[in-house]
Amino acid sequence: MNKLKKEYLFFKQQEPNMRTLLVTNMLYALVLPIVEIFVGAYIMRNTSDPVMVAFYQLAMYIGIITTSLVNGYLLKKYSVKTLYSAGILVSGISMFGMMTIKSLGFVELGLAGFLMGAASGFFWTNRYLLALYNTNDNSRNYFFGLESFFFSITSIGVPLIIGAFISQIDGKEVFGFLFNINTSYCVVTMAAVVITVIACMTLWKGKFENPKETNFLYFRFNILWKKMLWLAGLKGMVQGFLVTAPAILVLKLVGDEGALGLIQGVSGALTAVLVYVLGRMARPQDRLKIFVGGLIVFFVGTLFNGILFSATGVILFVLCKVIFQPLFDLAYFPIMMRTIDAVAKIENRNEYAYILSHEFGLFLGRAFGLLLFIFLAYCVSQDFALKYALVIVAGLQLAAYPLAKNITNQTDTIEHENDK
Asked: Where are the transmembrane segments (predicted)?
């Protein structure tokens, strides 16, 4: 209890805006597992086609990049917290709209995916902007460590609770109403909408500023930022699979949503504590060690899945995936934001210009990864795609380490020259 009290007091010592942003993101962390896992599982259950899940995800990423561009223009007229709140709210409403659709064809999935992506575009770009403005390089390890801790905790608890709820209530009558699998998903989504409203109310307690420079659309950048965009592409290439692959693999080879929640829970427990400790104790110079550790864990997990391609292989892959994702993000986001700090000073531009171009980098990587999966599924077989597409992208992503090291060294040089 004394240690918990000490950590709470340390949290209270942070800047008020940083605390407000963290609490908002912690609340949204309760919703994110529904978006990332159960939407994919819902589509898989209703279509029995992994390619449809990948198509939905691609439409979602198109929605993200579209609203990231629109968000830049809206920042000229509306406050960043208004746009951030809109992203949070629309994400919950979009899920509910999708789950009320009776027929899930390509058109319906494309529209639902685009709307979900539109919400995510407002959420993530404004989240990056607020985190950039309300943290510094010394506090970012803690910020993303604590945030990842709660995302890991919710990735354990939420799937367990929802998986158990869906498994237990399916086919049963409650208060005279007969529940089926789809109505159970609707109940889960309504709960998610309520949480998003509470998150928005929390966000409005903060005093956040918009960028002073309004121009944000550029096509030429410093060589350092071009390297960062390549790193974003490598991250996005794997990120597309992390949303769809676990749900597809578990439902295909292991079982139902209850099994999905249990697997996530087992692997997430240790990771939650590990990421918080690393975020609390690690220095900025330790980021590359964390970065390469996450890359290796993920690559090993994809090998387990590709070689075994069984329930055991899937469990080992998901274990590695849940460990990899927060470790990778813990190192990646501070590197990205430190690079933005450095390049924005060199080029004297609005920081949102880099956040927007970063989304384009992520999009190109995501599109490549998903199109690779769809190509292999149609031209070879779905099993081949599920086995080897992950191994291919994980192998390519190993190139992220030398690239991240080069970016970090170059940023160090720029900051050292500025200090002189």
From this structure: 21-43, 55-75, 82-101, 107-130, 142-166, 178-204, 229-253, 259-278, 290-308, 314-333, 354-378
